[in-house]
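Appendix B, record 7
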Amino acid sequence: MDGAAVGVDLEHSSGVGFPGFDDVALTPAERRLLAAVAPEEAMAWRAAAWARKEALLKARGTGLRVEPASVEAFAESADGTVLVDLDTVALGLPAGFAAALAILGTA
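Structure tokens (predicted):
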């Protein structure tokens, strides 16, 4: 994995529940995905989406200098980027957390 970049993020669902989150953080495709999620799972889904975006942006080295709503958290990558959800239970985290790992430069 010579030259690979790694990003990891951890997010609690309480951090994504503010009014307007969907507008500033989600792409149109992600808003469509969210519409299909059961209401009781929506906050966990938002936290997972945000963790995936932040992990990806950290791996890219751009952080939030890029509009989060322009970053697809669930799209297939054509460039070999690996983006996965981490098992928060196995990590020993309390309920409400989402975690993600992004690895760039694996192709």
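Remarks on this record: The beta strands are 5-12, 82-86, 97-104. The chain has a mean pLDDT of 91.
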